[in-house]
Specification:
2 copies of one chain form a homodimer.
Chain A (H helix, E strand, L loop, with lengths): L1 H22 L2 H11 L3 E2 H5 L6 H14 L2 E6 L2 E6 L1 H32 L19
Antiparallel strand pairs in A: 1-3, 2-3
Helix pairs in contact in A: 1-4
The first copy, chain A, binds a DNA duplex (30 and 30 nucleotides) through helix 4.
DNA sequence: TCAATGCTGAAGTGTCTACTTGACTGTTGA
DNA sequence: TCAACAGTCAAGTAGACACTTCAGCATTGA
């Protein structure tokens, strides 16, 4: 079934929206840092945060909907864990783009070095590739 | 001067806010993907996006304020470039947390394997470290 | 010279976000 | 049994966000 693949690709886009949005809040990043050192309860996550418990719960929901955190409730305590898989997918998106630019800049540097000019990318420097949009 | 260091650390937090927020929008990520293949003008970045040019400009501003993109104007054309350094700092934040969890899970797996139980992290499994919060 | 191009700035609008308070439920330990 | 605890749910609010339209301003190519 082809639709499944397309749907999966579209979901990946929406997933990245949620993941990066979850990461964009300093309080949530603090929670993730705490969780990187081991599982924790909701109220434990909120302890350093100067906000109501209800607000903390909402942040945990954002983290959980993004897939960055998984949790399970035992008795009255909800224990949260960091999910490294989701963390990895965000990391991969960034590193793929970064390596592309870096490689391009490397090629440009080599080109400039072997041609004559100074080794920085000038505004109207000729591109080393044939592509005129570079 | 000690305050300089503190200020720098606080700025790093605010910077990550801006970077991850910039990354959380699918349109802006599309722009970054285009820029990973080479510099581009503002209107070129907006071409695949089905929104007004003014909106595109606002997105470019968000990207530029986050440090992900740098731009310069020549004549009437503003040329944008992806800044790999900022991309790297976001990537590093993620990978540092990810490696912490993964290492912890690895240790737990080894512990469970050499003790007796099945190799998955059960909800009430005993922790391999002395720390009772694990 | 003049119209088209590429962008900028300001103001307006609907929606989303990050909280708050307060009332409530199930769990635990004394 | 009963109070303290851990979390949940719902509703309300101020501010942020992602757009829009419209007016304006250099720059450029014919």
């Amino acid at each position: 079934m082809r639709g499944g693949i397309l749907k999966h690709m579209l979901n990946q886009v929406a997933d990245l929206d949620r993941v990066f949005h979850a990461l964009s809040d300093p309080g949530r990043r603090l929670m993730l840092e705490r969780l990187s050192r081991g599982p924790a309860s909701v109220s434990e996550l909120g302890k350093p945060l100067a906000m109501s418990l209800a607000a903390v719960v909402q942040h945990v929901q954002v983290l959980e909907e993004s897939g960055l955190v998984r949790s399970q409730k035992l008795g009255r305590i909800r224990t949260c864990r960091l999910n490294p898989v989701t963390l990895r997918s965000a990391e991969r998106w960034i590193s793929e783009r970064r390596t592309l630019v870096e490689r391009r800049l490397d090629r440009l540097g080599e080109y400039l070095a072997e041609t004559a000019g100074s080794p920085d990318e000038g505004p109207s420097a000729p591109a080393p590739q044939a592509n005129p949009t570079q």
